[in-house]
Amino acid sequence: MATQRFTKHTASIVSLAVSMAMEMSADALLFLLDGAVDWKKLKESTTEFEKTVIVATDSVDDLKGATEAGLHPLALNKEKAPLLERLQHALLEAASDELIRTNGDVIAVYSGFQQGRLDSLSHLQLDERMRRLNVRDLQRLGSSVPLKTIKTVVDLAVQIGREGREGKPVGTLFVVGDSRTVLEHCKDSGVDPFRGYNRKHRDLSDPRVQEDAKEIAQLDGAFVISPDGMIEKSRQMLEVSHEDLTMSKGLGARHWACAAITRKTKAVGVVVSQSTGTVRLYQNGHLVMRIEPMDKAVKWQEFNYEPPATTSEN
Question: All domains of the chain, ordered by start, with CATH?
Answer without folding.
Answer: 8-126 (3.40.1380.20), 139-301 (3.40.1700.10)
